[in-house]
Every structure is written in C-alpha cells, then in structure tokens.
Amino acid sequence: MKNFNSSALHSHSQSTNHIRERNSRKYSLLSVLPLRFSLRGYGFCMATLFLFCFGSLFYQLNGGPPKILLDIRQYLGGSTYLDDHGQPAPRVLPFPSQVIYNRVGKCGSRTVVILLRLLAEKHQFNLVSSDIHNKTRLTKHEQVDLMKNISSIPQPFLYTRHVHFLNFTRFKIEQPVYINIIRDPINRFLSNYFFRRFGDWRGEQNHLIRTPGMKDDERYLDINVCILENYPECSNPRVFYIIPYFCGQHPQCREPGVWALERAKQNVLENYLLVGILEELEDVLLLLERLLPHYFTGVLNIYKSPDYKKMGNMTGTVRKQTPTLEALQVLYHRMRYEYEFYNFVRDQFHLTKKKIGLKSVSKPPAYSNDFLQQLALRTPEPLDEDEELETDLEDANSWLVHP
Ligand SMILES: *[C@@H]1O[C@H](CO)[C@@H](O)[C@H](O)[C@H]1NC(C)=O
Ligand SMILES: *[C@@H]1O[C@H](CO)[C@@H](O)[C@H](O)[C@H]1NC(C)=O
Ligand SMILES: *[C@@H]1O[C@H](CO)[C@@H](O)[C@H](O)[C@H]1NC(C)=O
Ligand SMILES: *[C@@H]1O[C@H](CO)[C@@H](O)[C@H](O)[C@H]1NC(C)=O
C-alpha cells in the first residue's frame, strides 16, 4: 500500500511537469484554452494509468490475482478495477494449463463432470476428478499435500473436487485458475434435503437400501418442522454452505457473517475466471467455451445432443415438498449472507455475459413474496449433482465410447 501511494504521487507530478512544458509553448494564444483543458485531461488520464499500472503490479507482487486471469480478462476487453492496465490487450487468448473446479454440492456439478469426461477425451487434457466427496475442509498438512498432488498432474489439467478454496499462493505454489457454478441457495438446500432422504432418478427403493443408517424419523421429517423448529440441518452453520467454498480453509470462513462473505466475494474477483449460475447453465457453458476453448470447445453441442438429453432424462424424480411461505421466509432470513453472495455472483456473471455480448434475462428481485412462493419450483434440474458420482460416470462412459 505504501508503494502504491508513492508511485501514484511520482507519476502524477511527472505528468504535471509534462503538461506545463507543453503548455508554455503555446501560452500566448487565447484559443489554447480548450487545448489546455484537454491536455490537463490527458495528464490526469496518464496519471491514472500509471497509478493502475503500478498499483496492479504491487497488488500482484503481494499475492493478487494470477497473471493469467488478468490476461484473459484484458483480452475480453471492457474493464474492471482489476484489469485496468493501460497495456495493449493480448491478441491471443491466454491458455491456462492448470484449472480447478472446486465444485459446490448440488449445483449441477454432476452434469458438468460428465461433460468434462467427454471433453477431456476430445481435447486431450488430464481430467482428475477426486473420489472424495465428503471432505471439504482440510488441515494445513492435508492442504499442502493436496496442492502438491494437484500441481504434479501433467498439464494441461482440470482438477475437480468438492473442496473449499485452496490458497496455493500462501504456500508459494503457482495458483491455478479456478472456475465454479452455484445456484439459488434455497433451491440448493432443498435439493440436498430431499436427495439425502430419497435419492434421485435411480429410485427411492434403491436409495433406502443405500442409506440404511438413516432412521425413519429423520427420513420423513417434515421440512417445515425442520426449518421452523431449528433442527441443526436447517439452521446455521449448516445452511451457510456456498460461501465457504469461495472463502477458503480459514476457520472463520465457516462462521456465518460478513467476514467470510467479503472474503469470498474478493476471492471470486481475484482467483475465479468464471463463477456461473446453474439457472443459466447454457450460458455458463457458452462462456466456458469462450474463456477456456482448449477445454470446453464443443461443450454446448454435446450438452444439446440427443444422446446427452437422453441422459438428462434420468433426473430428479426426488420427492419434493414445497415448504410453506412462512418456512421459506425464515430460511431466507437465515441464509441472507448466502443470498448476498449469490446475488453478487449473479451480477458478476451477467457482467461477463455482457462483455461477451450475451443478453441477460432479468429476474424479479429476490425479496418479493411471489418469488419466495415460486422458489422451490423454479430451477429446472438438468442432471443433479450426486455424492456418489463415480457409479454414474460408469453409465456415462457406456455411451461415451460412441461420440
Ligand atoms: C467419508 O466417506 C467415507 C466412506 O465413503 C468414510 O469412511 C469417511 O468416514 C467419511 N468422512 C467424513 C469426514 O465424513
Ligand atoms: C497424493 O498422491 C499420492 C500418490 O498418488 C496419494 O497416495 C496421496 O493420497 C495423495 N494425497 C492427497 C492429499 O490427495
Ligand atoms: C492467499 O494467501 C496470500 C498470501 O498469504 C494472501 O495474501 C491472500 O489474501 C490469501 N487469499 C485468500 C483468499 O485466502
Ligand atoms: C424422457 O422420458 C420420458 C418419460 O420417461 C419419455 O417419454 C421421453 O421420450 C424421454 N425423452 C428423451 C429425450 O429420451
């Protein structure tokens, strides 16, 4: 920060001298007035550029966003405070060769992982999908182990696991580019609630056999009771779920509050190439295709192909009960940080869409009662995420052989 200020002063005074010198030459002319103003404007402009230039340099030296992310954003054009460099945009889209998708549970990641299986073959990158589905936070030692493991995968690779954000920079390992997808928080919660109890398209009987440990009291617990009587499953910190994926491994990242929220937001800006929202999955895939062509070219064709649609048919026959409006409102209040984060991510996503030239469908504001009533029914579920992913992928592979 000290550096930031001194460099700003330095570049500013430099450009003021610059103006004075050039002004003195045409001093006598009255008509020079507009010119003086425009030169002053020019000076300010240059000073601002210097400021951003030095600023972002020091920012990066202090562990700011990975350079490749800035390069990609710059290539896209437009500007956010993070990419105002004043350097010419690169002519070729930079190619990140390390990508992490730290997929959030019940946010459509099963769909995406199946697509990735197909894409990895098509584009010859290494897809590593962790088979650990129930461990999102790690000890410091486990973090270092995992990051070393990830870094040792032959590049280009895409690594995916249900895991809270890992800060490679902190351990002096090169930071990969992150991507992710989230979803309306209450819809995610409901999807998880009923999936835990009744499973998915493979049928309820199947699920009952696979989850013998669950007592009937729990399985058939009315969701309104769960919410209104503050069962742990329906209360904080358990419903503070999405933010920790973006905040990181710090214990405070799991405490519902502003600290975790703000850190998660900042992290989205600094380390994520794209965080899509499941409600606009086709646009997410389109953007991935544009931003990471070496990984995602052709993904929309696959997604829209009849074969894939057939697979998409094997989806949520999960018994869903819509909570009462009262319960939804209580839950909504309990998840206010999650919503603040979701809305932030959605706005960022729409911004990126705009840069690429895609229109955003405007949704009603999250606060109306109408919205709450529709909430549980709104999201079309392409193929829901599943804790036991691997067996489904076997199914996927059976038609993968004939593309
Ligand atoms: C995760 O699941 C495995 C088996 O699938 C189990 O042995 C292990 O105890 C679970 N770990 C946690 C933290 O729940
Ligand atoms: C890292 O890789 C090694 C060998 O492949 C494996 O034994 C180990 O469990 C991995 N560690 C983590 C944290 O994934
Ligand atoms: C990651 O670690 C770096 C260096 O310790 C730190 O500056 C940065 O704030 C951390 N980022 C997150 C999101 O934890
Ligand atoms: C999806 O399933 C329904 C009912 O099982 C069937 O009528 C329909 O043809 C299927 N669609 C596709 C694309 O397979």
TrEMBL record:
The chain crosses the membrane at residues 39-59. Residues 1-20, 383-403 are annotated as: Disordered. Residues 383-395 have a biased composition (Acidic residues). It comes from the Eukaryota. The keyword Membrane applies. Residues 1-17 have a biased composition (Polar residues). Its main location: Golgi. Pfam families: Sulfotransfer_2. It is found in: Golgi apparatus membrane. InterPro entries: Heparan_SO4_2-O-STrfase, P-loop_NTPase, Sulfotransferase. Keywords: Glycoprotein, Golgi apparatus, Membrane, Signal-anchor, Transferase, Transmembrane, Transmembrane helix. It is a single-pass type II membrane protein. Coiled coil: none annotated. This is Uronyl 2-sulfotransferase.
